[in-house]
Amino acid sequence: MRRILVTIAIATAIPFAAWGHGPPPSLDFYGHFGGAAARCQQVIGLGGRTCLERVLAAQEHCLDTENAGSACDLTARDAAIDAAKQKARTMIATACDATAVQILGFLGVDEAQRDVANSCESESDATLSVMFGAGGSSASIGTPASVPPCTREGTRKARLLLRRASQLRQRALDVIAKSSLGPEAKRGRMARVDARLAELRALLTQQLEATCGSDFATYFGKTVGTYLDLIEKRANCLTAAGYVQGAVTCPPPSCGNGAKEAGEECDDGNSIDDDACHNNCTKSSCNFFPSTFQLIQAAVFESKGCTNNACHGSAQVGGLDLRRGASYAALVDVPSLGSVHKRVEPGDKDNSQLFRKLAAATLGNIPDLEGSPMPSGGLPPLTQNELEAVRLWIYSGAPETGVVRGVADLLDACAPPPDPIQIRPPAPPAPGEGVQLRMPKLPLKPTSETEVCQASYYDFTDQVPPEARSTYGTFRFKSRIETQDPLSHHLIIHIYLGSADTNDPSWGAWTCKGGPHDGESCDPKNLSFCGSEGVCGSAAKVAAACFGFGPDDLQLPGKAPAFGGSQEPLANNYFAPGVYEELPLKGIIVWNSHAFNLNQKPGKVEAWVNFEFAQPQEQLYPIQGGILDPDNKIFIMNVPPYERRRYCYQFTFDQGATLFEISSHMHRHGKLFQIYDPRGELLYTSTQYNDPVHLKFDPPLLLGNADAATRTYRYCAEYDNGKGNPAEVKRKSTSPKAPNGIPVGGPCAVAVACTDGLVGSACRGIGQLARDRSCDTSSGANDGRCDACPVVGGLTTEDEMFLFLGTYYCDPAFRDTCHEFQRAMAGS
Predict the structure, then answer these.
(1) How many CB atoms lie within 10 A of CB 384?
(2) In whole angstroms, what is the distance from residue 339 CA to residue 319 CA?
(3) Is 202 exposed, middle or buried (0-12, 13-18, 19+ CB in 10 A)?
(4) Taking Cα atoms as reference points, which of 572, 565, 564 lies closest to residue 350?
(5) What is the 3 state secondary structure string of 518-563?
(6) Do 575 and 478 touch, CB atoms closer than 8 A?
(7) pLDDT tens-place string over residues 586-614
(8) Cα separation, 465 vs 433, whole angstroms
(9) For a pLDDT cut of 90, what percent of the chain falls above it?
């Protein structure tokens, strides 16, 4: 009986020899091979697994080296891969002869060797593309501690599943190969393996979701389930290469699934066609960089000569080493010699000495520049695009890994799809010197924009020393440093002074946002329950300017004054000497976050506020100012499509106001904001709506003249609705709706100009179809579209604002003319 079964196996297997020659036979006809063939089969499987693990290790080591900023030794990598493949070939040649491999379904020993060796390298490539993306932009074994725990855990779990899936399936097939099991028993054994792997995947899914939460897709570009499924398929493909049977098969290549398979040059799993990997799974011809910092390193530090031996190479001028592998650690969060600034302050270009010195060479006129512009020694300055690339990198938190939107385009390079960058949380002030507030985490869906309000509770009673307290239950501080993730247009922070307590139902359900108890119900006054990485937050509500959020009295004058906020990742609010601000020792904070995620991956926004206590001698003048909007001109603009318009107004400060900082606020169509002093001289210019200039006056400007004209500042803003770049015209089809209760903004009721066909022409006709046809280049062309809208005032990023921001205090000699802010918390 055994001999008959062996004969059947041989007769069936050889016509379908090897997995590349046709459909493999059913499991019913696999097995009963006898001792020599069964031993050969076991070694083929072991050789494939051994080869894959060694090739994977060599390729990962190369990626880790590049991610650390050093060049990979490609010769050593290729030698390690060749050695791993040769090891598999030798194992097969030692254990197998021509008869054994033909019984197993191969035409000869050389084919078995070739299939296994080729498969172990191709499946390593595919596995790496799933784990690290098309360009290997994530980090793996041996990477710095800065690599997010989710990334480390995800790659570790992938290696575990890859190893266990190939081991379990191959061992089951090894047993079948040497036994006399019937068809039902064979299928039962394989079903038990499937069940064990299903349990393993469920466990890995649970563990990854516990570690990563919603951040998994941010780091890996796919859900946990899809990720593990792609990894398991790589194990199946390795098994299918060495075991000619139909129970474990390799799926055909599929361009776009995120795994680089046979016949594909790359596969990044996204629909973006102008990145490093085209949508047909061929590589782009442009220079590819897996992270923005690696691109900055090559395109700025190295190409501009900053790393030559006489500069910031071996000479390390000023103690700064900008060579590959050393530059990041030497720059970010490191004090600059001879300067009050850090070399790079993540999120704040104005306090980053690197940017200041680079900008001085490119733009000139950098106030109070310490040292000389860079590059020096006759080297050419950065171009405007190169300087803007550095600015965007710093603005986005100066990440070591990950991709910042827009930088690759500025530097004519290719990079993976942009990441929702997260800024590094600031350390809280030392005990006795200050305190920290933390905003509940706000998740953001891919390609979304929202304005959300939520509340949290704080109690600093036991952290504030007596000298920083007032007699009416507040603490006083001399600086406020606000840090937030870069996916934010603005953050406004309110202190709630109404009558509702945290148990008022108007706040909705309180749950942990982040931390080990994420999503669980919590008592906001139990400040330790959610853990150090979580915050107990109220129900979040989409609400522009918090209209309709929380208790009814929240919108009443003086019941929820704004005391802070920012429109950039890092806002350093150091008050003028003697100026202080104050908050209750405990209370409810309302966080109003306008956030947008332009990326294809989920993101989040968190924020932190550090307060530095004011000592008694520093508690002289309460802070004044903020938004300076006389006559409510915030929504003054109305810019037709493909036009650029300028709007101006003026603001008169009270006599005795002592001005120490001015800034501005616009949205994305805002291209220029200027402020003129009372003499009419240009004082302030800002061209970045999402990173406006903050101009500080040291010493502060006392506006003490009785003549109002000497205290009047003129401010102007220019808005471009597609004149400079027609692609940036406001479109009805892509404009977010205006929030409820806001009478302006949002998409226009009827588009007024053509965006396709006769671009810029006025639309005609009644109904969308007729208006589209009025944009056609010729009758019957059907190539026109009427979609362009005017830019008007509003709250979304497609609408606009016109705000002069100023911070001052009132000189005590002018109490009768400088109207101090009457704080409700002071009982005034």
Answers:
(1) 11
(2) 13
(3) exposed
(4) 572
(5) CCCECCCCCCCCCCCCCEEECCCEECHHHCCCCCHHHHCCCCCCEE
(6) yes
(7) 999 999 998 888 887 888 999 999 999 99
(8) 9
(9) 61
Residue burial 173-185, b: 16+ Cβ < 10 Å; e: rest: bbebbbeebeeee
Residue 385, sorted as left (phi over 0), alpha (psi -120 to 50) or beta, turns out to be alpha
Among 676, 686, 673, CA closest to 709: 676
Name the E strands within 33-187.
none
Burial class (CB in 10 A: 0-12, 13-18, 19+), 451: buried
Structure tokens at 487: 């996916």
Closest alpha carbon to 352 in 343, 361, 360? 343
By 3-state DSSP, what share of the chain in percent is helix, strand and coil, each rounded to 5?
35, 20, 45
DSSP-derived secondary structure letter, 244:
-
Q: How confident is the model at residue 740 (pLDDT cuts 50, 70, 90)?
A: low
Task: Tell me how crowded residue 77 is: count the other CB atoms within 10 A of its CB.
Answer: 17
Q: What is the pLDDT of residue 796?
A: 82
Residue 544 region by backbone torsions, left for phi larger than 0, else alpha for psi between -120 and 50, else beta: beta
* Distance between CA atoms of residues 563 and 477, nearest Å: 12
Stated length of the chain: 828
pLDDT at 741: 63
* Residue in this structure with the two tokens 């075991």, named with its chain if needed: 243
Element (H, E) at 513: strand 511-513
CA-CA distance, 483 to 347, in Å (whole number)? Answer: 8
